[in-house]
Amino acid sequence: MTDHPLPFRDPRLSFAARADDLLGRLTLDERIAMLHQFAPAVERLGIGPFRTGQEALHGVAWMGGATVFPQAVGLGATWNEDLVRRVGEAVGDEVRAKRAQDERVGLNVWAPTVNLLRHPLWGRGEEGYSEDPALTSATAVAYTRGLRGDDPRYWRTAPVLKHWLAHNNETDRDTASSSVRPRVLHEYDLRAFRDAVRAGAVAGVMPAYNLVNGRPNHVSPLLERHLRTWTSGPLVVCSDAGAPSNLVDSEHYFDTHEEATAASLKAGVDSFTDHGQDSSVMTGRVRGALERGLIDENDIDTAVRRLLTMRLALGEFDPDLDPYAATAAFDTSGHRALAQEAAEQAVVLLKNDGLLPLAPGDGRTVAVVGLLADACKLDWYSGTLLHRSTPLDGLRARYGAENVLFAEGADRVRLKCADGWLRVPGNPSATTGARGAEGALDPALLAGRTDLPPLVCDPVATELALVDWGNGVLTFRTDEGLYLSVADDGYVRASADEPGGWVVQETFRREEVEGHAGRHRLVHIGTGGYVSVAADGVKVAVDGEKISAAGATVFETETVEHGEDAVARVAAAADTVVVVAGNDPHINGRETEDRTTLALPAQQDRLWRAAHAANPRTVLVLTSAYPYAVTDAAADLPALVWTAHGGQAAGTALARVLAGDVSPAGRLPQTWYASDADLPGLFDYDVIGSRQTYLYFDGTPLFPFGHGLGYSRFGYSDLDARLDGDLLRVALTVTNEGAVAADEVAQLYARAVPGEEGGADLPHRELVGHRRVHLAPGAAERLDFAVPVEELGHWSVAHGRWSVEPGTYEILAGGSSADIRLTAAVTVGGEPSGPRPVLRHGLEAADYDEQRGTVILDRTKRDGDAVAPCSATEPGELRFRDCDFGDGAGTVTVTASGEGAVVVAADGQEAEVLLTSTGGPYAFHAVQGVFGARGVGELRVTLRGPVRLARLDFTPAGGTA
Predict the structure, then answer these.
(1) Predicted TM-score (pTM) of this structure
(2) Which residues form the Fibronectin type III-like domain (predicted)?
(3) Residue among 240, 594, 847, 907 flagged as catalytic
């Protein structure tokens, strides 16, 4: 007889058995309620409420103070899985510790983001790890293992990977469709998720807002076809916020919310994040779908069972057995040290002509200048800082405050209007105690405060620091460090410690007044309203209504001092200059907002040029969430450094690297291009056809993938590569040939030898292994790699499978994708796949080898792909290589929808098949034409008009295949 009256509380049973027992005890209404993000308690069974979703990308986010680690892209730049795993453990511990104090903190953490950094203008690039699927997946495995914990039964937290799938644009993100052909799908986008899921430390996945091949990710058949085949355990799929409603409201993919909800549930979505904490809307839709027969109770039970199993694994029902239940590790000395270590390892030395390291010495002065010189910027997924170190703080501590000069470089301005000058009324209570002894932010200084007096216009001016962050986006800040911000009542106040919030309320834009040089209106970007001076204060709205241009106040800007003049002055007085430039992660590139250019904002460009003109010993430190095209700086300056926003210890870490206490060994996790001209369109997801990332880019990057320098030098020797069954075993020796202890990141790449299998559309090289090692001067280490032979392969569209073709493959080892020191060759045996057997299997339209002017769309709302011209007036073209027509085809059958023509050509033969619309885009029908191609050759297909081609089938001339 059990001591536990209810089997679901019996820890001796499997989680599956316990979940089934509990499921059977829940009423239908209770089960439906569990499908919402905020699942209510079931008091009659003693079950508490549960919430899916706790942001934990690089620390506990949105729940107050926490240890803030470097941004995810910075963790990717460490190329160090051991470090990233320890960061994951620390974050998981802090989630647990905060959960014990605040029940709002959830144990189902929505992290990490494994979307690949395909395009450097993507606004959320700061959230990803790398443009490379292998590096991204390895980093994600490390982080999720840390979050999950080592206990074989219970999970510290339950990580959810974001965002499935092919999501790299914020522009039109809930309505844009990513056209992803099978090779890109299998070789690129799926791989980042696959290996992390296979590693067994992932509890779930979140679909992205966008559509893929015309079908929303929240109803993607790939969730069941691929995702859930990678693990034997239950995998929870949590919708993104508001995405279930988007299926009807913005995407118009379904006519009713009941249809959309049913389709999502059947596709594999288990938890619906919609309408905040109000679950009634979504549960009502589930009930409606059930009543209409669109789903049955089994569909509901399947999802609830997965959710219950996750809750069991988190120890919810076994608090006495859960090894993580009593975790109290929060803001520990170990976590603070780890934050510094991570920040140090994330620093990438891009260029160094001998200026660095800059060892402190008697009489040496350092000028620290730039808009980020005294900043410790957070992003949308950061926690609140408990500790804070800016570059200025770090350099003062390392070099001595008396040896450090400072100039921010913001323009000092006054704004004049018809009635006088813009003035910030005195408000001592708003400015005292802005930062504590360790730099902690005062929580009282928040945007949105309405208890402070608004700005006025009178004879006394307030001098403001003006920063142009690029693209005409301006911020204004007082000498007390408070940004001009707009509250819900529409008044402008100096009330924000930093720009931030889902809608940033601290940014403005000038609008020149036509015919009046030097005069302008101010537009508040957050509301779109004009700034106006009224008797009761400066505002952008009246009774909730935006002020029109006619009602806007016209201003003139008087520049008291240009920022570059202040920078030049202190630069000339110092031994060496450190210019700190970059971005504010809440401005010009973040969730909901893509960038428009790789260029460094003009104001910051002027600052480094002014510093360098005054002092040639100038280092440019780029602290940013993404790459810049700084070609002039790379050519002119003696030293160039990049680091992502490094969290709470960023300044200390940077100072230690610049001083030589730490030899930098961060490596670029994505290509830095030389100009915007090197980039494809933001919406072009075909990395192969448009030659994106280091895998395919044919040009010369500013800095290549994997690039990074240090203060020592390393030798590579004795590369050995051999096949051992299904593994490629590679070994090499790395030796520290320099005079200082340092880390090196050994990188291993592979590629098909030119002329062998596949030709130009295979990667130039592909990362298959890497290792970060620390070596004392003169020390050497033998590094061993075991690479699955399948990693040498590619997705064969000719045969619909992963294929490693026989032939010679080259193994390349070195310090970056462009710094190859050693090569070796291996020969893979076997039978070649051969040409496409088109007479037997036909051709799926999306399985092309090349395309021009086409897009992949959905064949049905549930499954399948079709190809259409991008324009109804311009033809699209598909090319299929090595099609085997044997002794000759007799006919071609075109399966398509819409109205237009499909022209098929090969072996000097051509067939034009005309299509007449017989319904909507999903009304596919088959039309046959005479087509007599013979032998093996290329097939060309031209699409004209609004037609969707699903597939082509061929019959042999004799009538049998």
Answers:
(1) 0.96
(2) 744-817
(3) 240
